[in-house]
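Quick one, probably user error.
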């Protein structure tokens, strides 16, 4: 796949490639697997830093991707015990971790990929609504982890996070927090697709199976970010690590982009998957219905959002 080779080439001059994730998107997951299995990937990349993992379970994750036997119920804690209850239950996230293990089997010990869990290290067994403080700390924790485990060791890493955590020139995002590091040089790629995109992007030949890498160092960079990236998305308003609620007890959401923010302000390239509607890989309903895990997810969400 040409776009895989193009992104891999960025690692020749940079130590970080930040690849956005549209949560549950099957297209994004398929691309990541293709990229992971590209022969050049493991020859260039050392680490994969993921949003969908609790670092309190890093040892479990290390053992699994290195080939050790880890019970599936134990491994699930990596993505199920994060600050985002239920968000990573789509099968695509487990599939990715399993695929890294598969790639590592073919590599010598010194060249195996390490997967770094980079969500805020939350212990749900000891949390109460008054002690939840991870909201404003997630990107800060991830940036510090990347600085410590990747940059200070002169390693190269693929970052896989929701795009909003990776945008440049946004206060508190991972890439913005790393800007002061002399070792941090990143290539930020956001996935886009579906109907209604500007004609200059929609005219590019691409499909879900063969996405096109579109750099923004041309007139495309002048496009309004709100017309291309996460269209219509709003973000939860957080103050001092706590979500803000209105008088009716409902969480407050605010627009993701202000007027005047251009595509070039936020990313270096877009990965365009064509004009078809997004395919979501949803978690199985049986994961929640009548299960202890389903009860626990609801408990955690009530702690975060109330109601």
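Nope, works fine. Designed sequence:
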């Amino acid at each position: 796949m040409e776009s895989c080779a193009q992104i891999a080439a960025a690692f020749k001059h940079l130590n970080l490639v930040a690849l956005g994730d549209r949560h549950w998107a099957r297209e994004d997951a398929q691309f990541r697997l293709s990229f992971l299995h590209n022969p050049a990937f493991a020859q260039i990349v050392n680490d994969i830093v993921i949003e969908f993992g609790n670092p309190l379970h890093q040892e479990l994750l290390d053992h699994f991707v290195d080939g050790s036997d880890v019970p599936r119920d134990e491994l699930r804690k990596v993505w199920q015990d994060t600050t985002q209850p239920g968000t990573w239950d789509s099968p695509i996230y487990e599939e990715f971790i399993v695929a890294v293990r598969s790639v590592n089997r073919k590599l010598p010990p010194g060249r195996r990929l390490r997967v770094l869990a980079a969500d805020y290290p939350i212990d749900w067994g000891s949390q109460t609504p008054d002690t939840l403080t991870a909201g404003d700390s997630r990107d800060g924790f991830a940036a510090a982890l990347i600085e410590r485990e990747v940059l200070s060791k002169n390693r190269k890493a693929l970052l896989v996070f929701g795009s909003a955590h990776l945008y440049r020139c946004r206060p508190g995002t991972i890439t913005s927090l790393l800007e002061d590091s002399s070792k941090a040089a990143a290539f930020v790629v956001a996935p886009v697709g579906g109907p209604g995109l500007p004609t200059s992007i929609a005219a590019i030949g691409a499909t879900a199976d063969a996405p096109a890498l579109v750099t923004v160092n041309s007139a495309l960079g002048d496009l309004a970010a709100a017309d291309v990236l996460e269209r219509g998305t709003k973000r939860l308003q957080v103050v001092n690590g706590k979500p803000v609620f209105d008088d009716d007890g409902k969480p407050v959401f605010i627009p993701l982009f202000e007027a005047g923010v251009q595509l070039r302000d936020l990313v270096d390239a877009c990965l365009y998957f064509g004009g078809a509607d997004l395919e979501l890989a949803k978690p199985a309903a049986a994961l929640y219905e009548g299960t202890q895990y389903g009860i626990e997810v609801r408990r955690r969400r009530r702690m975060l959002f109330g109601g």
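The two ends are 46 Å apart (CA to CA).
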